[in-house]
Amino acid sequence: MNASLFDFDLEDAKARHKALSEQIRKADIAYYNEDAPVMDDGAYDNLRRDLEELETRYPELATKESPTQKVGSAPSKGFKKVKHAIPMLSLSNVFSEEEVSEFLDRVRRFLGMPENEPIELVAEPKIDGLSCSLRYESRNLVLAATRGDGAEGEDITANVKTISCIPQTLPKDAPDLLEVRGEIYMSRAGFAALNKRLEEEGKKTFANPRNAAAGSVRQLDSTITAKRELGFFGYALGELSEAIATTQEGIRRKLAKWGIPETPYKLCKTMTEIIENYEQMLQERPDLDYEIDGIVYKVNDLELQERLGFISRSPRWATAHKFPAEQAITRINAIDIQVGRTGALTPVARLEPITVGGVVVSNATLHNEDEIARKDIRQGDMVVIQRAGDVIPQVVRVLKEKRTGSEKEFTPLEACPECGAHAVREEGGAVRRCTGGMTCPKQAVERLKHFVSRLAFDIDGMGDKIIQSFWDDGLIKNPADIFTLEKRNESFDKPIREREGWGELSEKNLFESINNRRNIALNRFIYALGIRQIGEATAKRLASTYGTIDVLQEAMSFAQDVSSDAYNELLSIDDIGPAAASDLIAFFAEDHNLDVLEQLKTHLTIQPYEQLERTDSPVFGKTVVFTGTLVKMTRAEAKAKAESLGAKVSGTVSQKTDYVIAGEKAGSKLKKASELGVTTLTEDEWLELVL
Ligand code: IVH
Predict the structure, then answer these.
(1) Ligand 1 pocket test: which of 88, 122, 131, 290 has the largest number of ligand atoms within 8 Å of its C-beta?
(2) How far is it between the farthest Cα atoms of the chain?
(3) Fewer Cβ neighbours under 10 Å: the N or C end of the chain?
(4) What is the per-residue pLDDT for 97?
(5) What pLDDT is recorded for position 47?
């Protein structure tokens, strides 16, 4: 509480009361109705507390209209996190008939099926909502969780229980344990009614049914969720106590029989059937009571699904055939340059704001200078822009016939707009980069934002604005500083609680969320380092290959020698080519990075990578090499199977190889194996070992 409050006279107090009430109301609307909070919980709590104290001193201000008199609107600390028993996956996308046919070719190749052999697919609408996992134990709904990052979501059970079409109990013939995955959506009619009501109440409306559904499900007060018209469609399974079907169609039938809402679907065997169904759904799309953004194809036979397995975060046995992006015409008011955490300079078009597919768009990415030259994009141009799903809007083409002659051509910058260091274009690449490295403040801030982001350290209440302001005032300069903030707080000119927008409670909450993350999974830690080309999936692979941060670091130091085993091992990891390898090695060779790493290690417990795969498999942790022609499975299937059992698949035979699986006509690798005394197995012996 502000000490000066007690110097207020009634007039001043009234003015302050009005200002505080307004801020709280705005925050409430942003939080409850738009699912887009404008401040963190701590700052919000402070405002409410200040208001309450003011009203204690001046009770006449506590009128019925005051936010303190409203029930059920104070946000609590949010939702409990829940780990998914089986990860919730996403889908790969295809955008054309040709890509659908490539998807089918990939499936056939993986399974070793002859070209053009029909594969039965279930084609179902792709619902544009938010995914949710429903867990039934002893046929009772015990848990509903959001997808989150796929491994961990949020417990939204109380809210989901208010969705009337979701059964709270299942009939007797349902298994003891059943997890149903599906999509929560808001009907178009419900969306229109909700927006009408919000408008009448002078509140801000939702941009589209998906945001409205997400906003409704993320209400902390489930009586609000209950008032929203939400629906659910089931489309997949999670953990199960027993198999319920042998086909995707069978799953759908069982779920429908047990009262889980199911969309219509179509069985397709030929490209003609697939495309006919797609065209038909595209036509029916505007008449459906729910929004769809494509068609999902799933291999119908569950045995084939099992063999196909997963790649990274999506199943090989399914893909989403997306509907075309929605487009609009607007003007480019300016072309700005954004500096990313790796120094990449990305041109961004500032647009005259325009609504595309229900969302207001005011920026579009221009990718790089080649793209600008290729499309001949100039400042002032009228352009066609498009957005599809959640991707950043793009400029499709310039309407040259609309030019007036006042448009300005784009000239690439010679220097970083943030730090003035030379901006150079990579040899052979299209990206221009700031060469400021560690000295470019913008890169440093972007790296910090990445470090605390959701898939990395996921520090609650440390949003972009807070990072920027802590950086500006010198409170944090590198990621390790985050973990010493609390210790250093009292020595700051102004401790955090005294900064604008902060208070004791929000300060306490911030330290609590930082402390909650002192224990971190290795894969998240690697991802958080923000190494160029090392995304989330690659970070997981590195974590599973090396197991601990020290082993990884040591390996990267050995790998500086490109003729070393360490370098070859690095290159044998999926997704790591020479370019990513060189970025990784360079990161771990840089003194400044090693320094920050050492500091981080003193503040953190970095958990060794937890294998999601079976650790009890006979080939777990073994290095295997396939050679020769396999007859019972394709090379890709054999590799995927081995990896799913925790084996490492390598292309070269060395001392470290545990098994060489020799198919027909095996040659030099088999010879090398016997020279080195490595165990060799026939294809059948291998299958006996792993099946
Ligand atoms: S199947 C392993 N089927 O789309 C199966 N997903 O882009 C994974 N979605 O996260 C999902 N309709 O939220 C599947 N008929 C459908 C779907 C669907 C919508 C969503 C789902 C998923 C996202 C992937």
Answers:
(1) 131
(2) 94
(3) C
(4) 95
(5) 79
